[in-house]
């Protein structure tokens, strides 16, 4: 229950006469003197007093001492950044560490050998394996995005990068659900909801993978000239790992911060996404064409509106339950549970940078349509995944890491800027890369 900002002043007593001259109490005109009333013994009789219906008075309002000011936009954004920064930094560090073992463990093998990126295009089997790999990675959306940047662009000539379709299937699955969120879902909603969420996340991941191009000109050109552009030695060395950290930090931090700012602004300035009481007709049993179209449009609007927002796979359980409580159907809540954390604005910006805006729109459309279909299937099967909902806590990183990741992020960004400036200055002075020995040679 919301705590009001102002309450009635308990010390403000009503006056006997209001501002219009109306008395607060008047005689009851229906009251009559009892037959046994003796004025000599009982005194002069008078009708009982009752409240005057014409009396108008409003008690003075005072500020509620229990009221807490809602956080401002800047405060909300600061909280979101502090929560996301450790996971983004962890993802960047993991990207560099994975690059250090490319001679023994290529990034292709990270997706398992069955992905076989040398074949023409990508099939459903490959996308399924990418989705399974995404479900097994214990990273939230902020941590998975830097890793996907490394998977897409590659880190050396031996690891030229994976197709965009496979990377997006991996990213969608890792953000929509995972091993850690499966455990939380099992504890909150039971085994049926856990299995439904994992299977639904896999279907969403495959659909997104099919919707986006398997490769792009931007990816191929960047992969082909990765060593020539960055002029860094083999990533199996310490300096190579640091170089990958710097490059990934400059690419990922601005994308994530932009997405957090826009999604926080949407949640702060727009009406609450959980206020869906007007959608209660979604559960009607009519089968008319108008009702079906209304249902599909309603579900599509609700699910599409949450796609750009930065909602983690853990807290989306609470929002999905609130959506159902406000009048949405169980299937709509299930579709929201799958699609809300699957893709967000940083992920969409990642796609637009790696491929095109058209590919980004294709992914949004496919994700929305697939989520609507899954929500309708859940309702048709009378599955209520939100039954027995409770509130769970999101997985957290160690305090020593979370407390110092801000300084580490600043070091990575500053190092990346210095490295970029140094590379630009070297190119202007006529230096070139000697890729045969991994060192810079001046002409």
Automatic annotation (TrEMBL):
Location in the cell: Cell membrane
Region described as Disordered: 424-443
Keyword NAD: no
The family this protein is said to belong to: Belongs to the UPF0718 family.
Superkingdom as given in the UniProt entry: Eukaryota
Membrane topology per record: Multi-pass membrane protein
Xref: SUPFAM superfamilies: P-domain of calnexin/calreticulin
UniProt source species: Seminavis robusta
Keywords: Cell membrane, Chaperone, Endoplasmic reticulum, Membrane, Transmembrane, Transmembrane helix
Keyword Metal-binding part of the UniProt annotation: no
Main location: membrane
Gene Ontology CC terms, in alphabetical order: endoplasmic reticulum; plasma membrane
GO molecular function terms listed in the Swiss-Prot or TrEMBL record: calcium ion binding; unfolded protein binding
GO biological process per UniProt: protein folding
The name this protein goes by in its record: Permease
Transmembrane intervals: 84-107, 127-152, 164-188, 194-212, 252-270, 332-352, 359-380, 400-418
């Amino acid at each position: 229950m919301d705590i009001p900002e102002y309450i009635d002043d308990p010390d403000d007593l009503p006056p006997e006469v209001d501002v219009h001259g109306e008395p607060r109490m008047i005689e009851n005109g229906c009251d009559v003197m009892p037959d046994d009333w003796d004025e000599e013994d009982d005194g002069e009789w008078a009708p009982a007093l009752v409240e005057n219906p014409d009396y108008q008075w409003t008690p003075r309002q005072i500020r509620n001492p229990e009221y807490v000011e809602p956080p401002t936009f800047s405060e909300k954004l600061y909280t979101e950044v502090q929560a996301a920064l450790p996971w983004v930094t962890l993802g960047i560090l993991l990207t560099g560490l994975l690059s250090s073992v490319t001679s023994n463990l290529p990034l292709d093998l990270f997706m398992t050998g069955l992905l076989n990126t040398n074949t023409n295009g990508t099939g459903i089997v490959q996308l399924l394996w990418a989705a399974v790999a995404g479900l097994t990675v214990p990273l939230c959306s902020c941590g998975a995005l830097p890793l996907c940047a490394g998977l897409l662009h590659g880190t050396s000539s031996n690891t030229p990068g994976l197709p965009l379709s496979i990377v997006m299937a991996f990213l969608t699955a890792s953000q929509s659900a995972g091993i850690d969120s499966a455990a939380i879902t099992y504890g909150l909603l039971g085994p049926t909801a856990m299995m439904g969420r994992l299977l639904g996340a896999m279907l969403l991941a495959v659909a997104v993978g099919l919707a986006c191009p398997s490769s792009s000109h931007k990816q191929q050109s960047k992969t082909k000239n990765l060593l020539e552009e960055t002029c860094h030695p083999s990533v199996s060395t310490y300096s190579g790992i640091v170089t990958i950290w710097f490059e990934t930090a400059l690419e990922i931090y601005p994308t994530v911060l932009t997405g957090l700012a826009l999604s926080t602004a949407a949640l702060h300035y727009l009406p609450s996404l959980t206020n869906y009481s007007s959608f209660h007709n979604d559960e009607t049993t009519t089968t008319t064409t108008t009702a079906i179209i209304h249902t599909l449009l309603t579900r599509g609007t609700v699910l599409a509106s949450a796609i750009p927002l930065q909602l983690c796979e853990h807290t989306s359980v609470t929002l999905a339950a609130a959506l159902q409580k406000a009048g949405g159907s169980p299937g709509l809540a299930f579709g929201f549970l799958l699609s809300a954390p699957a893709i967000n604005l940083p992920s969409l910006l990642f796609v637009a940078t790696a491929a095109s805006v058209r590919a980004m729109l294709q992914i949004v459309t496919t994700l929305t349509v697939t989520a609507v279909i899954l929500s309708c299937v859940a309702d048709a099967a009378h599955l209520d995944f939100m039954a027995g909902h409770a509130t769970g806590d999101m997985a957290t990183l160690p305090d020593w890491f979370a407390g110092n990741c801000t300084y580490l992020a600043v070091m990575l960004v500053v190092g990346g800027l210095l490295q970029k400036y140094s590379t630009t200055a070297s190119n202007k002075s006529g230096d070139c890369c000697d890729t045969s020995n991994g060192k810079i040679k001046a002409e």
